[in-house]
Design a protein that fits this description.
Pfam families: His_Phos_1. The chain has helices spanning 26-36, 52-61, 82-89, 104-113, and strands spanning 2-8, 42-43, 45-48, 66-67, 70-72, 94-100, 127-132, 141-144. The protein is α/β, with parallel strands linked by helices and 145 residues long. The strands form 2 sheets. It has a 6-stranded mixed sheet, sandwiched between helices. The mean pLDDT is 96.
Length: 145
């Protein structure tokens, strides 16, 4: 059984030398603090993109939840291929959190749950739960948290 929480990073600075270096704003930190309160206190793992804003979001979550594993993964960046992510996620069991970006997270949620991408638009700090036997396209149930 898999519980896959999807969290879009908190609000970030509008500009930085490179998109990957944008940091969370105070509002973004507050958004993640609110989302973290909705997560279980124990996670099988937490996977975040290597971008600064997702690293910061993950660190804020870890102030509330413990994770057996913490992984930085370039297959969940803003322009990553959803099919590559699904290949990586298929082996997961337990309760996992992905800290990632839009538009990637919206497309991932839509593919895994077989609902319209229009129904999965993630604002900053948004948290959703996908649950089911295995992370395969169209097999997980979707719920906003």
């Amino acid at each position: 059984m898999l519980e896959l929480f999807l969290l879009r990073h908190g609000e970030a600075e509008a500009r930085a030398a490179h998109d990957s270096q944008r940091r969370l704003t105070q509002q973004g930190e507050a958004e993640i603090g609110r989302a973290a309160q909705k997560l279980p206190t124990q996670l099988s793992g937490l996977i975040h993109s290597p971008y600064v804003r997702t690293q910061q979001s993950a660190q804020l979550v870890l102030q509330h939840s413990q994770a057996e594993q913490v992984i930085s993964a370039d297959w969940i960046t803003p322009d990553a291929a959803v099919s590559d992510a699904i290949d990586q996620l298929q082996a997961l069991e337990g309760t996992w959190l992905l800290v990632t970006h839009n538009p990637f997270v919206s497309y991932l949620a839509a593919q895994l749950s077989a609902i319209s991408v229009n129904q999965t638009s993630f604002s900053t700090g948004s948290l959703a739960l996908l649950a089911g036997a295995q992370a395969l396209p169209g097999t997980l149930s979707f719920a906003w948290k």
